[in-house]
Every structure is written in structure tokens, then in C-alpha cells.
Amino acid sequence: MVKTTLSVIKADVGSLAGHNVVHPDQIRIAEESLRVAKETGIIKDYRVTNCGDDLELIMTHSRGEDNDEVHKLAWSTFCKAAESAKALGLYAAGQDLLCDAYSGNLKGMGPGFAEMEFEERAGEPVVVFMADKTEPGAFNLPLYRMFADPFSSAGLVIDPNMHGGFSFQVLDVHEGTSVELNTPEESYDLLALIGTTGRYILKSIKRKSDGIIAAKVSITKLSLIAGRYVGKDDPVCIVRAQHGLPAVGEVLEPFAFPHLVAGWMRGSHYGPLMPVAQKNARCTRFDGPPRIIAWGFQVKNSMLTGPADLFDDPAFDMTRAKACEIADYMRRHGPFMPERLGPEEMEYTTLPQVFEKLKGRLKKEE
Ligand code: F6R
Ligand code: MG
Ligand code: MG
User: Fold this and answer.
1) Is 200 a catalytic residue?
2) Could you confirm whether 12 is annotated as catalytic?
3) Which ligand has the minimum distance to the alpha carbon of residue 231?
4) What is the mean pLDDT of the chain?
5) Which residue's alpha carbon is at the smallest distance from atom 16 of ligand 1?
6) What is the reported pLDDT for 343?
7) Cis? peptide before 338, omega within 30° of 0
8) Confidence class of residue 226 from pLDDT cuts 50, 70 and 90?
9) pLDDT digits (tens, 9 = 90+) for 34-60
10) CA of 356 to the centre of ligand 1 (A)
11) Which residue pairs, CB below 8 angstroms and at least 24 apart, start in 152-160?
């Protein structure tokens, strides 16, 4: 059986009105680039979209994960979109393209990606989550609830195929190590780690009974920066659903709670994660609040049917209203923690300069 690979690769290569949205010309350029790649057989199918200022390439193929051709295609597509951003005078044109030339794999080059290779089941629903103004640790809480919390995913209790539980791979970004933990038996150990969202990041989830892959998060930048904080990477996540995995409704259910995530203005604040329709994936107030979109697909013979824009639904209206209320409450703290992140996690800080200025005035307390 031929395996299908789903690659979701994203980059911020410039945007309209500050860090707000990708320009329609960039979407057109990316679509044209992937159309040609589909014709020449590099990929089987594709969709292009944006979540705020991030250009998102959703591609299927049979080349496996970390494939040179596919990564090269994404890189050249982002380069073309960055060229157009420069010509249009868009903000931060080429921002995420950290290298001058492509060199075999996108790791460490700026773009983020989540890739998953799997054998297609008879029906293969997948949900692609894309978020702006936050970081990969933002998925820790919702993924735990999807795959380990029976108060969120009823299937963990009542579906015999889910009842055995799941195994979670957790990355320690400080040490550059990872560990596999099984639920339900190691749930408390898992929570002890992933509650620290800035350090322990859920990377992938498998079903324990047969090892099939169920979820993948983009941690590409983070895995390379062990021990050093180099900034937030707006994350993407792929989740397979149904038939012994959480139902699509169970995959979405955790997002009904707009939990606080790190990111927002200058990557240095906590704000509520607001689930929105793709057309509303535009961060405005205080460059936020952080947004997430969910595109659902059926995959058959590596072809994509969809998307279903899953948060484009009044069922999430109350969540959005709550997110606005939380945003308001958090903002009232201004520059004080816990609205502002702790110093070790901030993307921007003037603290060293402030200390430098005050050096001569620091007195030892008796
Ligand atoms: C956060 C983000 C924005 C910018 C902010 C300042 O991820 O992209 O909040 O940090 O708009 O941007 P610069 O420094 O480009 O003026
Ligand atoms: Mg930007
Ligand atoms: Mg962004």
C-alpha cells in the first residue's frame, strides 16, 4: 500500500499593514508555484491559505517526510512570495527566510513545518490547525484534552479502539532531548512536563495499540535552539480523526476554551487563543488576540477534498466572546506579569540596557 505524506509548511515572508495579513498576490504566487509542482509530479495535491501574516502551504505527496524535493519546492515558493512582498513594499518582506540559499532541508532555515506519513484508512479525515501570534506549546493543552482527557474526548472511555490510550512524544527545548510518555498510566508525569509550555512541547502522538500516527506539531525551529531562546514560531499541527481516533468534534472541542498562550504583541505577552474562520485570521487588537484556524479535509489516494473551515461556526461564538473578554482583562495589567511574559521567555527585552544604565546607581541593601 502506497503511503501518503501530508506536509504543512509555513513562513511569514511579509505582510500587509504591519504583521496583519498575507497579501492576495502572495497567495496567487504560491498557488501558481504549487500548481506547476502538481503538474510536474513533485506533489499530488495542495491548498494555499494564510493564518494572519503566515503563508501556509498544505501539500500531499508520496515522498515521505523531510523530502528534499518538497522542501525545495516550499522554499522556492516562499522566495517568490517574498520577492512580491518586496516589490509591493509589504512589511518585513522575507522575514522568515533566514538563509540565502536552500541547502537540502528546511530545518533551521526559518519556515516551520509539520509532516505526517500514513497509510490511508478507508475514510481519512484530517484536521490542519494553523495559528498566528503564538508558539508550538500552545498545542500542549488542547492535544492533551483530545487524546488523554475523557471529559473532552468521550471516545477514550466508550470507543474500544481508543480505550488503550495514546503515547505522547515530548521535546525539552532547553536540553534538546525528547521522551515518550503513555496515557492513561503516565498522565500525571505527562502533565508535570507539558504544563511548562515554553519548555516541554508536545511533538507527536501515536495510538498505543498499533502505533499509528495521530498528531504532529511543527517544532522545527525549537528543536534546533536547545538552550537558547530565539523567538516564537507561529505553529501548525496535523491531527487525524475518527475510526478509533478522536472524532472531528472531539478534535475541536478543546478549542471551545480560549486558553492563555504565549505570543501576542511582540511575542512577549499572554493572550487567549481565539478560534476563528479563515477570513477572520487577522490579528488586530494589540496584534491579536492570537488566532487559530482549523481546516478539515478528507484524503483519498493522496488527493485532498475540502477544506471545511471548521471554526466558521456560531458554535464557537461564545468562545470568541469569552476570548475578547479575557483579552480585555489581561490587557489591563499593561506591562505587568502575568500579562507580560517572564523575562526568560520574552521575544523583546530592554532589561540589559536598563541594568546597564542603572549600574552606577545600584547599592547593596544592608
Ligand atoms: C508578534 C508580532 C508582532 C510584532 C510587533 C512589532 O509575533 O509579529 O506583534 O512583534 O508588531 O513588530 P516590529 O518589531 O516589526 O515593529
Ligand atoms: Mg509578521
Ligand atoms: Mg505570524
Assistant:
1) no
2) yes
3) 1
4) 94
5) 18
6) 86
7) yes
8) very low
9) 999 999 999 999 999 999 999 999 999
10) 25
11) 152/250, 152/253, 152/254, 153/246, 153/247, 153/250, 153/253, 154/250, 155/245, 155/246, 155/247, 155/250, 156/184, 159/244
pTM: 0.96
- Measured CA to CA, the distance from residue 320 to residue 274 in angstroms comes to 6
The confidence band for 352, taking pLDDT boundaries of 50, 70 and 90, is confident
Interatomic CA distance for residues 263 and 257, integer angstroms: 17
Q: Is 229 tagged catalytic? A: yes
Q: How far apart are CA 283 and CA 189, in angstroms?
A: 35
* Residue 249, ligand 1, Cβ within 6 A: no
Query: Per residue, what are the HEC states of 69-89?
Result: HHHHHHHHHHHHHHHHHHHHC
Binding site membership of 222 for ligand 1 (Cβ less than 6 Å): no
In three-state secondary structure terms, 46 is strand
Count CB neighbours of 83 within 10 A: 16
CB distance 18 to ligand 1 below 6 Å? yes
Is ligand 1 within 6 A of the CB of residue 133? Answer: yes
Cell numbers linked to 267: 511575542
Cβ of 266 closer than 6 Å to ligand 1, yes or no, is yes
Q: Which atom of ligand 1 is closest in space to residue 18's alpha carbon?
A: 11
